[in-house]
Amino acid sequence: MTKPVVGLPTPVLFALPVVSLALLGALVMADAHSTLTPILGLLVLASISAELVVFPAATYAFLRNSQLRSWPQALGLAFLGLKLFILLALFFLVAAAGI
Predict the structure, then answer these.
(1) Residue 4 lies in a domain
(2) What does pTM read for this prediction?
(3) Which of 15, 60, 82, 92 sits a CA distance of 20 to 30 A from 75?
């Protein structure tokens, strides 16, 4: 008897980085005195927080359950991981430079 397996839908893995980057771009383009700036800042933090929660959970589910292993799932996971890696690498690079 097989256990029921719940996985993250593949479109979520592709949509999270795109939404996060779009919000980050909107935050950078927004005027510093705009009323949208704090709202965009909170949305960027929420989307990055969601990515930091979803990535380990999706990776664990992908590695643990053979029913979830597919090319679209792997590509979505790689896309999300690459975006998080670049974001964290830039953060540490800027922190190390003292900017």
Answers:
(1) no
(2) 0.82
(3) 92
